Amino acid sequence: MMRTIGAEVMSVGDGVCELAAPLLPTMGQQHGAGHAGVTFALGDTAAGYAALTLIEPGREVMTAEMKINLLAPALGVRLIARGRVVRPGRRLVVVTAEVEAEAADGARKLIAILQGTMVPVDPA
What we know:
- The chain contains two helices and six strands; from the N terminus they run αββαββββ.
- Helices cover about 15% and strands about 45% of the residues.
- By secondary structure, it is α+β, with helices and mostly antiparallel strands.
């Protein structure tokens, strides 16, 4: 999915991750803004990668649940998602993410916040 939307990792640290993806015309909805599904996917993935930095090596994470509040339309040239771990755990990792839309002039606007739970799993 991240390859499909052209996402790239901007930074990763202990319990944090920042991703960015261009807001392409093919990602729009009927009102001309970026589709909420793209916003959700980017925020969910940033939060998941943040969780992945704090679990034991060799394990993966999967989203158990994720809530999104859409605050504003996704208008601009790119989306930036910052995920972070709120509370790490062996069985559950509570995460959050903020997604901003970036305009051509570099101005950013917060468009969504997400909160959820990641579950550490063994690789498939």
